[in-house]
Amino acid sequence: MTPGGGSGPMKDCEYSQISTHSSSSPMESPHKKKKSAPKRKWEVFPGRNKFFCNGRIMMARQTGVFYLTLVLILVTSGLFFAFDCPYLSEKITPAIPAIGGILFFFVMGTLLRTSFSDPGVLPRATPDEAADLERQIGNTEDIANGSSSGGYRPPPRTKEVIINGQTVKLKYCFTCKIFRPPRASHCSLCDNCVERFDHHCPWVGNCVGKRNYRFFYMFILSLSFLTVFIFAFVITHVILRSQQTGFLNALKDSPASVLEAVVCFFSVWSIVGLSGFHTYLISSNQTTNEDIKGSWSNKRGKENYNPYSYGNIFTNCCAALCGPLSPSLIDRRGFIQPDTPQLAGPSNGITMYGATQSQSNMCDQDQCIQSTKFVLQAAATPLLQSEPSITSEELPLPGKTTISGPCATLTLGQPTPPSSMPNLTSDTGLTDMIPLKEEHEGHQFLTPDEAPSPPGMLPSGSPITHSHTMHVLSLASQDSLHEDSVRGLVKLSSV
């Protein structure tokens, strides 16, 4: 064998190892990338909203009217700056286009701030929180009605709180599974509960609530000034031109001014009126929703006076426009945290709500064994309490064989229930847990003859006193009793 022949297989072997490693790396890289890319909360947001720029922009789903608002403002202002401002700055003063530009940028800034921000959406309850709240509501209704009838949906549930001496009702939202805070309401278009809900405005493409109301008010107020400003100086432009060349020639020379005047004339009334209405609402510290429903009166002497008003117009305006801006509660750009297993189990016989299906499946076997042991122990307790002695005729019934624990003593009337079963202290609870043979025909149960008779029981006729603690089984017979009891459980489970 030559040295060259020996090096050839070595090179092939090395080449095959490199090629195998390189071919497997493209298969592993997509898998790793998929694991390292967690989703953000806006991607699974339950409401009817649209998000842009990785969740930074939040709008309603219906945005057609919003784009119409943008077109009207941009076109009207653009025509004004292009055709009217050059003539007005030359004939009157250069301050006119400067003031118009300031108003235009302020209007656009407040419009975009109102449309792209979170209006104050309240986060929905998690499944665990919703289940716990439903349990609390169910317990309260059962106490109020005196019975727990299943399959009945109660009327809208409310809570009452007192704010400045006025009783305010908190309504329960069946969609968000929460009790809405005062002044909050559920928007049917966005499908969200909004804090201090004012109204849903299609012109801005968003709800108007606690976090964007001040920007909405500044938008309509500045838009009113801009509309009046453009309309006034367009008319001035036409009048100055008509003095030189006549009215008809002035309209022919600047047709854009005619379009601007028409748009401003038909829009100024609604915009100015809306601004005045919201100025009244701010001065009285009310919302559009409250004013339409007639919830409160402005007079303090009446029973339904407004508990949110400070009693001063200036203070109300400062609270609405100059107060601190609350942070967003939905954290739309946050990452979704992986679900962690909930280890909290039921206690004191009360089944906890919000447990997952996987957790219940894992605990079925252990709970079944613990529950069956408890049923047998609870079944033997009333028999020992009711009869002073045990005779040979009183054979233990199926499911009522006493199983002793590590201790050889049995405390009457105080069995320790497992964590997953309700308390059983009487024959009534036993009847609910173990169906009788007459009630369920077709099921096979052990007869008294087939039931295992545990050894080590007291002989017939032995007196059993009504003490709180008595010795039933000896330590030597516990193992055999446990084996026979398990055999009986196996027979029961096989049925």
Topology overview:
Blueprint: H1 3-35, E1 49-52, E2 57-60, H2 64-91, H3 95-116, H4 127-145, E3 158-163, E4 166-173, E5 178-179, E6 185-187, E7 192-194, E8 199-201, E9 206-208, H5 213-245, H6 247-253, H7 255-284, H8 288-293, H9 313-321, H10 357-362, H11 364-386, E10 409-411, H12 427-433, E11 469-471, H13 478-494
What is shown here, in short?
This protein is mostly helical and 495 residues long. It has 13 helices and 11 strands.
Describe the structure.
With 495 residues, the chain is mainly alpha-helical. Helices cover 48% and strands 8% of the residues. The chain contains 13 helices and 11 strands. It has helices spanning 3-35, 64-91, 95-116, 127-145, 213-245, 247-253, 255-284, 288-293, 313-321, 357-362, 364-386, 427-433, 478-494; strands at 49-52, 57-60, 158-163, 166-173, 178-179, 185-187, 192-194, 199-201, 206-208, 409-411, 469-471. The strands form 5 sheets. A 3-stranded antiparallel beta sheet has the order 3-4-5, with no helix packed on it. A two-stranded antiparallel ribbon has the order 1-2. Mean pLDDT is 73; it is low at 1-28, 340-363, 382-448 and 453-476.
Feature tags:
single chain; 495 residues; mainly alpha; two-stranded antiparallel sheet; 48% helix; elongated
Structural Rg? 39 Å
Order of helices and strands: HEEHHHEEEEEEEHHHHHHHEHEH
Q: What structural category do the secondary elements indicate? A: mainly alpha
Kindly state the percentage of residues in helix.
Answer: 40-55%
Mean pLDDT across every amino acid position: 73
**Beta content:** 5-15%
How would you characterize the largest beta sheet?
A: 3 strands, antiparallel
Uncertain parts: 1-28, 340-363, 382-448, 453-476
- The coarse silhouette is elongated
Physical arrangement of strands within the biggest beta sheet: 3-4-5
Termini separation comes to: 77 Å
What's the total number of strands? 11
Question: Number of helix segments?
Answer: 13
